[in-house]
Amino acid sequence: MVSKEEVREDLGIARKWIYLDNAATSPMRRSVTGELCEWYRDVAENGDLNYEVYMKRLEECRDAVASFMGVGSDNIAFLKNTTEGLNTALLMLRELGKREHRDTFVTTDMEYPSNLLPWAREKCRIVRNDDHLIDINDIDKAMDDKTIALAISHVEYSNGLKNDIRELKRICDEKGVRLVVDVVQSLGAVDVEPCMDIACGAGYKWLMGPYGVGLFYVSRELMKETELPFLGHNSIEYDETERFDHRNYEMKKGARRFEAGNLPFPLIFALTKSVEQLSAFGKKRIEREVMKLSGMLIGGLDLDIKTPRNRGAIVGAAGDKRLVEILRRKGISISARDGLLRFSPHFWNTEEEMERVIREVNAETSQGPH
Ligand SMILES: Cc1ncc(COP(=O)(O)O)c(C=O)c1O
Question: pLDDT (tens digit, 9 = 90+) per residue, 296-307?
């Protein structure tokens, strides 16, 4: 069994920082950045000669990522990031809405701008939070037979509130509403039940991969019902005759068709390496660790904690923003988001680190306001 110490050995950051900002960006393991270098070395020496090898490896990557998410490979496309996924979802659903005589989206005011701005520019109902909590009954009330889709995070970025996506799917289904879930703050930390119509995520947070590669899940039903918003050479099956007949072509199988152009191979290969490593450590074991470590912070910090019981790995607390800078000078990295101090430990952080952070924060807060 892979030990936490082995993971920490492979992470440069663990020796320098108490890094509790994994909800912003997780550090990459040296073995993962090695994959990036390897691809650039290969293309420097071989140009396009290994293109088919990359395309074959791409399918292995799709299988690995799909298996990690507990979904079929045909449901997964590699996009650039979560934001691109959410905007792609919007374009698909807006068209579907026109056909179904539905014109309104629903989201909440706890969403990250990427899951708020695109919908809010359309006809949209925005469910308000009450002290960093969203009441599922308010979501239910906001939806009716004119609602196209509900867009919501699985785990909210500011305080780690974990929305019950199974229950949300149930109330969406009752009204014929599609469910779009931003999974970037849960995938890689806590289990994501793939019951939604669309899920959007990225590699650089809890999955410990690079920037520039996002994951886009679409259910088979929705793929059948919607049009592709983007189309390109990579959306269609390769034509051996090289004629690329624009009137007569076959779409690629499943969600592959969303990858309209050439893909960032090194980023996808590196992300997959990381996903394989997370699988080897154990998904359940990761969840146990992140819940234990974040639970220590919730129990120990003398701050006004705004993270509820139904939560992911993120801890949000009301407090003086200047604490971020004070802690940074002590080698501890946290962040401030949406008016809260945010602590986000990953599985490779240690209990000793949590104890030290609790000591440092409580020593600062006991001195009164800065
Ligand atoms: C909940 C949430 N959604 C979306 C994003 C943006 O992700 P991306 O850079 O993959 O588009 C973030 C970034 O912090 C986030 O926290």
Answer: 999 999 999 999
